[in-house]
Amino acid sequence: MRRLFLKLFRRRSMERDLETELAFHRDMAAAHGNPIPMGNTTVIQEHARDLWRFTFVENLWRDVVYGARSLRRSPALVVTALLSLGLGIGINTGIFSMAVEFLLSEPSVTDARSVVSVRMGGNSHSSKEVVEFVRASGLFQDVVGEYEEASINWNDGVETRQLSAMLLTKNYFIALGVPVALGRGILPQDPDEVAVLGNHFWRTRLRGDPAVIGRSIRLDGRPYTVVGILPNNFRSLIGFGFSPDVFVPRYLDDTILALYARLKPGMTIGGAHAGLLTVAQRLDKAMPESFRYADDIQVAAVGGFDRIKTETEMQTVGLFFAMLLVVVGLVLMIACVNVASLLVARGSARRQELAIRLSLGAGHGRLVQQLLVETALLSLAGVAFGLVLRQAMASAVEQLRLPLPIPIRLHLTLDWRVTLYAILLAGFATLACGLLPAWRSVRQSIAPSLRREGRMRLQRALIVAQLALSLIVLTAGFLFLRNLWRSNAISPGFDIRHTVYADVNLPPQEYKDVARKRAYVTQALRELTALPGIESAAAARVIPFTNNTTFGSSLTLLDTGKTVRALFHWNAVSPDYFRAMGIPIERGETFRMAADAATRPVIVNRAFAERYLPDRDPLGRAFLWGDNQTPYAVVGIVDGTKNLSIGEEDEPQLYEDLARIDNDRTRVQFVVGSATPPATQLQAVHAALRRIEPNAGLEVATLYSSIGLAFLPSQMGAALLGGIGLLGLMLATIGLYGVMVYSVSRRTREIGVRLALGADRRDIALMVLAGAAKLILIGSAAGLLCAFFLVKPLAMFLVPGLHPSDPVSFLAVAALMAITGLAAAWGPARRAASVDPMTSLRYQ
Amino acid sequence: MAKSDSPMLLQGTLDLLILHALKRGPLHGYSIAQTIHLLSDQALKVEEGSLYPALYRLELDGAIAAHWGVSENNRKAKYYEITRRGKKLLAAERETWSRLSLGVQRVLARQP
Prior knowledge:
The structure holds 2 protein chains of 2 kinds. Chain A is an alpha+beta fold. Chain A has 24 helices and 21 strands. In chain A, 52% of the residues lie in helices and 16% in strands. Chain A has a 6-stranded mixed barrel. Chain A has a 6-stranded mixed barrel with strand order 13-14-19-16-18-17. In chain A, strands 12-20-11-21 form a 4-stranded antiparallel beta sheet. The longest helix of chain A has 39 residues, at 708-746. By secondary structure, chain B is α+β, with helices and mostly antiparallel strands. Chain B has one domain: Arc Repressor Mutant, subunit A (Orthogonal Bundle). Helices cover 54% and strands 14% of the residues of chain B. Chain B has 4 helices and 3 strands; from the N terminus they run H-E-H-H-E-E-H. In chain B, a hairpin with a 5-residue loop joins strand 2 and strand 3 (76-82). In chain B, helix 1 (13-21) packs across helix 4. Mean pLDDT of chain B is 82; it is low at 1-6.
């Protein structure tokens, strides 16, 4: 304390005092006839000064000013460093923001840590009664329910569209403390017909008009009063940017709800789990079901690290981002090597300056510090530029409309975590770029005997490292590109090029009756088939890649009496489904209208027949499904399709006749086979369906554009890693080019001598190219060796059959590297060949 | 710097010597050096290069206080004076030193 005080207030007078004092000391010594001390006055002053001043900070500031001044004199270095580091840091913070958004973002609720998701009996969703039961048990402070994937028809006065809706219990907004931007949330005492709008829907479809609050909009044919608008950065409980258009109270009796609860103060997740067990046991007594609620209980956090720990899908996403961060980290290292080799070159140009400073008594540490400060300035500039790039990238990604059936809006904000990450990267970049060159320059200045050759050796080593790094990154990128090609080449098992897809949501009030729904489907199919250019039309409960229903049931074969436990993808389709989708019927036939009622016809795929109907001819075999007494008879065998992702193995599938099932849903999906390109039929299909039921929510698109979800992972991977790989290659090429130019300019004299002694210009060019080729060769060899081991874990993200260690990828990448590398060396080689011997010999 | 024929002072001992020299009363820098020189029978010689940094450090630590005064030959000089804190420090350092030197002497007095 006292020291600080003295330092602050007395340091000015200290300088003056010391000088007077030293003069006095010398005079006294002279007067007494003592030899005048030989000490270096400046050193004494500096030492004393160091004690009394905030030396470190002051030196640092001086270094900053000095560094900025000297950097201003080398704009080429600054621009290259800015671009290299900016791109590197930009892509790193960009990927990191995505990782934060996907993995660590917290939902928009107050005190997200005390909100948990609750599952009982292994069910993700439970009935309203169950929600009420848990709520009434008093175990939690409050319990809410939401159904996330509802569709609701919105009529804007002209057109009826489908909106994605979140159905809620009315205590949702109050219990969770969901913020609203305008108006208010839904209150428990509200009537059923109130709605809170998502910000994006409000802005894009309602022109962001604040006066919409209090007005009514027509949803599913009923007027709803808009009470509030959610903020733009609203994050739902499931995360992943999922943001429905409207939030309305649950109104259909059979809507099932996902349970969320707020813990009481001081309650832990473990405690909640134990308490929930007894509640579930009581529930099992009160409402017996075919399963037991108490059997499989889960209480999980809704955000942050806790969520990653409990959800396996989050862990896969986490691994993917970890992989991405490693890859972009390598890109940053490539960028750093670029800057480092520039700094090495600059260091040798500054050798004289450093030597003078050293001989004047500057410490090595001080010089290294000063050189590092210059690098830090460069990396800070790089961070600033990188954050600008990140912002651009973030808004591009936020604008991106993903071809998904669910509404996704990401918010890649620059929060404290991203900022901290950027600062860490800047620190890393400073050390990675600056430490080696700074240490090198300072050492070289003391030992001038280290000649030019040695310096170039360091630069060559840097280039080799850089080429090796970029080869690793490229290999990863190339693997994902091959993954994309391969998954595009895989047939999904149905025709995606000639099919129109229509998604209809019938008004639920008017279509409660199953017969009414059947009548609608029959009429729609008749009118669609009548359209010119349409070959076939069919309705289905499930369209592969957009939705999926899986059953795990026991099947009892009637002929052998054996019971098998079967797990299969289920669908219910109209007879023409296989024709419209281009799924070949291998044997048997499709459903017939007037089949006997004693059995229910099913069509299965080959995988189903092989796995569950073995030994005998599957066609015509009958089985009992669970407790159901009507036998199911196999009338046809088809090739089958993929169901969830393009890379999956063939799995058992079972189709029922749509007309024979007890259809409880108001959503009907049509597929229409067209002779002409499907895009030309969209209008006609839309008009026909609109005519039949004007109040239905209606979306019509080509099937290809609707099943984008299937191709999304491979496309995303290819786009991200391919882009990153190219960026890495570009940075490495710039680095190689720079070093080649530098080395040619240093060897101008040598080349001049060679030419004067009669060397061929072609030989000179070849000599330079050979130098580059040697670097590329070593770099590629080192890179291939590392890549071989590093890309192995990528297998988990690739379609089956594509092995990361496939030599094709390595060969292709090495060839690409060789071509780009030699192209980069071509310019410097030509320059070397065109050296004028006379000028170069006179020079120096 | 030229080699001095007087032995190098151990790190930390200079502080002790300075404080000891100041025990009798305020002195300026030169006379501190002289005092040490004379008291050691001219065996020790304090270089100004180590003396002044040590003085400044001690002053910062609050072991000595400085003020400007007039020297015996009527020149402005900075006088240093030991503080109470300095006296405590002197006692402690002295104790450490005697133990150290006694130990060293014992070691050297005996054959291993």
